[in-house]
Amino acid sequence: MSMFNIGLSGLKSTQTGLEVTSNNIANSGTAGYKNNTAEFAAVYNGSQRGGVKVANVKEDFVTGGEIVRTGNALDIAIDGQGFFAISENGRTAYTQAGQFQLDNDLNIVNANGGKLQGFGVSQVDGGDPTIVPGVLTDLKIEASNIEAQASTNINFNGNLSSSSDVIAYPTAPAVFDPKDGSQYNFSQSTEVFDSLGNSHVMTQYFNHTGSNEWQAMFFLDGKPLTQAQLSALGATTGTQAIDDGAGGSINAGTITLNFDTDGQMVPFSGDLTAVDLEVPITSTPGNAEITSGAAALNIALKFDGTTQFGSSFSVNENDANGYTSGAFSGVKVEDDGRVFATFTNGESKLQGQVVLASFANVDGLEQGSNTVWYQTEESGSALYGEPESGSLGKLLSGSFMGSNVDISEQLVGLMSFQQNYQANAKTISSADEMMQILFSNT
Q1: Which helix (H) or strand (E) holds 17?
Q2: Residue 386: partners with Cβ closer than 8 Å, 6 or more residues away
Q3: What is the DSSP string of 146-184?
Q4: How far apart are CA 393 and CA 84, in angstroms?
Q5: Residue 432 lies in domain
Q6: Is residue 139 located within the same domain as residue 268?
């Protein structure tokens, strides 16, 4: 091959290198963009030198891009390997550009309207939603208001100090006054909700009444529950006169808690350590009742794990279920890809799970516009999995992955290609000068 053709092959290949480098620089701020590298190969025609060609333009899928913090819950970065799956009018594309938003139909989409794919949820008989693995679907948010749910359980777990003073209940004509802190050892309050979502306060008062023996009373919004409103199979219940705040008294129910010599609570019956608390719509004057128009309140108060050691009074768990109604307030995404709708009452509801795709040969993917790739025969079929499973990375909500372009490296490469281009141009001009000399001597 003539020097002209060798020089032209150098110009053409160098031009491609310049284009690749320029494209890298232009996309240095593009989310999910992968640095491209032009790979060159020498050309020979038999034993004759044929110049150079661009053998491949390879993308760097190994080096992670910069993690850019935004605080937007639907900006999702992949910390590690994997691709998001996006539905583009029926065709699945793959990307690491994790900048998403909600469209008018509350689908999770990218800026071009591509719908983020993941596992959906199922909900049976009003139970909690569960992930349906294995079937990809458009991830969509159900934003309807969440209805109020009445409290039905209180899980209480703490330590009643065995070294505390014995404080017996007052005997008639004296009455128990919950405002007098010297008449009981400990108290603890828990917020509960009725069927209309109204908030109430359930307060427990604990009295150390003897060796390994305690008694408890229960008040709702400052009014005591009666003995008839307490029930626990095998438990000992009783009554105690309470100051009604108007110079008289009302009766409150009491229940006895016993502990063994190892400090463990003795079950009421079998392994039962729960007390059923029933608060009716109407009750005797001065006692606990629901007057908000809601249904009667029925709560199982569980003392599982409650102890009596010599250490001070402490609470390890004091949680009630139930909540007031709530309006949709936003979305959150966990590291494992689970997507939740959040509500103004502090509750959240599972909506689905973002999945990641991997390929046997990522270099075989086909590039597309808008920083996406498509599977090919060379790449192999996409394999889907939950984030943090196998070789797949975890997700970082509130951030996105930027490009992995190193600007300094690209500028150095740009100068190198410029020099190569000038050198190849010089080769052609030198060949031209030689040809002119040759023809002038003939």
Answers
A1: helix 3-26
A2: 133, 336, 337, 353, 355, 356, 392
A3: BPPB---EEEEEEE--TTSPP-PPP-TT--B-TT-GGG-
A4: 11
A5: 3-62+405-440
A6: no
| Lowest model confidence (mean pLDDT) among 59-63, 185-189, 246-250, 397-401 | 246-250
Please state, in angstroms and rounded to a whole number, the distance separating the CA atoms of residues 154 and 306. Answer: 13
Residue type for 134, please? G
Same-domain pairing of 307 and 192? yes
Instruction: Read off the amino acid at residue 208.
Output: H
Residue 209 near residue 167, CB atoms below 8 Å = yes
| Tokens encoding 229 | 């409103």
Is the pTM for the entire model greater than 0.85? no
Comparing CA positions, the residue from 101, 121, 134 lying closest to residue 348 is 121
3-class DSSP assignment, residue 369? coil
Neighbours of 69 (CB within 10 A): 11
Distance (Å, whole) CA 236 – CA 209: 13
* Range of weakest confidence among 76-80, 418-422, 427-431: 427-431
Last residue of some domain: 274, 300, 320? 320
**Within this chain, do residues 350 and 393 fall inside the same structural domain, yes or no?**
yes
Contact 226, 253 (CB under 8 A): yes
List strand residue ranges (DSSP E) for 28-122, in order: 36-45, 48-59, 67-69, 76-79, 83-88, 91-95, 101-102, 108-109, 115-122
The structure tokens 């128990």 sit at 176
Same domain, residue pair 140 and 264: no
pLDDT at residue number 51: 78
Residue 424's φ and ψ, nearest 5 degrees, are: -70, -35
